[in-house]
């Protein structure tokens, strides 16, 4: 069995968390724009 390189695992975990945070931020911007667009189109229909 190979010994676990804890430092490498921690760096990988930190990188994954950073990428997830970036993805969530990007999705927030996308959905925020989509919601604004939906609200604007609903206002135009009324």
Distance between the termini: 68 Å
Rg: 20 Å
Tally of helical runs:
1
Structural class by secondary-structure content: mainly alpha
Overall pLDDT level = 84
Helix content: over 70%
Query: How are helices and strands ordered from N to C?
Result: H
Fraction of residues in β-strands: under 5%
Strand tally is 0
Explain what you see.
- There is one protein chain.
- 87% of the residues lie in helices and 0% in strands.
- With 46 residues, the protein is mainly α.
- The protein is rod-shaped.
- The mean pLDDT is 84.
Secondary structure blueprint with pairings:
Blueprint: H1 6-45
Name its key features:
about 45 residues, mainly alpha, about 0% strand
Please outline what is shown here.
By secondary structure, the protein is mainly alpha-helical. The chain is 87% helix and 0% strand. The relative contact order is 0.08.
